Task: inverse folding
C-alpha cells in the first residue's frame, strides 16, 4: 500500500468513527515525531494504535480492514491470571470489504456492530486438528443467547448486536449495505502470533513510502521508533 493511500484512509476512517460519537484517545493524533519524543514504551510494547491492512494483497477495497487498538494487556498477564487481561479495538469494515477467514489460538472476543450497515460473519468450527470443519455446526453466544448455525453459516449483526467468538472459531466478515463501525472487546490481543489464516496471506501491509506518514501504524513502530 502507498503511504499516501494509508494517510487518506486514516483521515476518512477517523471522520467515520467520530460521526458515531466515538472519540479516539489523544495519542492517536500524535505525529510520528511527537510520538517518538513522548513516553511511547507502553503503546509500542502492547501494540496500541492505528492498523490499516490489505493483508499484503494490494487490494484494500476488496480485502482489508481498518483498526485501532485502544487498550491492551500483555501475554504475561494472561499466563499469570492477574493484571490487565483484556483489550479493546475500534474497527471499520467497508461495504463488501472482506476480512479473510481466520481463527485465534488464545483470544476470545466480542464483535459488536456499533453502527452503519449490517456486519456479516461467515463461521466454521475447528476439527480435531484445528482446521476448518466443513460439516459441524457452530454454536456462538449472540447477545446472551446461544445461536446455532450450520458450517459456513452467515450471521448478520445489525447495529447494537454482538457475537462472542471463542478461540478456534473460524470467522470471516464484511460490511453489507454500507460501511460498518465495529467494536471489539477481547482478552489480550496479539496480532503477530495469534492469527491463523485460511489463505496464505500476511497480517500487515507492505508500505511504499511515497509521502511522510501522518500517524504511525502499529506495524511502523519497529522502523520509526
Result:
Amino acid at each position: 500500500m502507498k503511504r499516501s493511500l494509508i494517510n487518506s484512509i486514516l483521515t476518512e476512517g477517523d471522520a467515520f468513527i467520530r460521526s458515531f460519537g466515538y472519540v479516539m484517545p489523544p495519542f492517536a493524533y500524535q505525529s510520528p515525531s511527537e510520538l517518538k519524543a513522548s513516553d511511547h514504551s507502553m503503546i509500542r510494547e502492547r501494540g496500541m494504535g492505528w492498523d490499516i491492512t490489505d493483508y499484503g494483497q494490494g487490494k484494500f477495497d476488496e480485502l482489508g480492514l481498518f483498526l485501532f487498538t485502544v487498550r491492551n494487556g500483555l501475554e504475561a498477564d494472561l499466563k499469570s491470571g492477574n493484571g490487565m487481561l483484556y483489550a479493546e479495538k475500534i474497527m471499520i469494515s467497508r461495504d463488501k470489504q472482506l476480512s479473510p477467514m481466520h481463527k485465534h489460538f488464545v483470544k476470545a472476543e466480542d464483535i459488536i456492530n456499533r453502527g452503519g450497515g449490517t456486519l456479516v460473519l461467515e463461521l466454521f468450527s475447528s476439527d480435531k486438528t484445528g482446521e476448518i470443519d466443513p460439516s459441524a455446526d457452530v454454536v456462538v453466544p449472540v447477545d446472551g443467547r446461544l445461536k446455532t448455525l450450520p458450517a459456513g453459516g452467515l450471521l448478520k449483526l445489525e447495529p447494537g448486536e454482538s457475537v462472542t467468538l471463542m478461540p478456534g472459531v473460524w470467522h470471516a466478515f464484511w460490511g453489507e449495505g454500507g460501511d460498518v463501525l465495529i467494536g471489539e472487546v477481547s482478552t489480550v490481543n496479539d496480532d503477530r502470533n495469534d492469527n491463523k489464516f485460511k489463505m496464505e496471506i500476511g497480517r500487515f501491509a507492505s508500505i511504499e513510502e511515497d509521502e511522510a506518514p501522518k500517524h504511525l501504524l502499529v506495524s511502523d513502530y519497529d522502523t520509526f521508533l
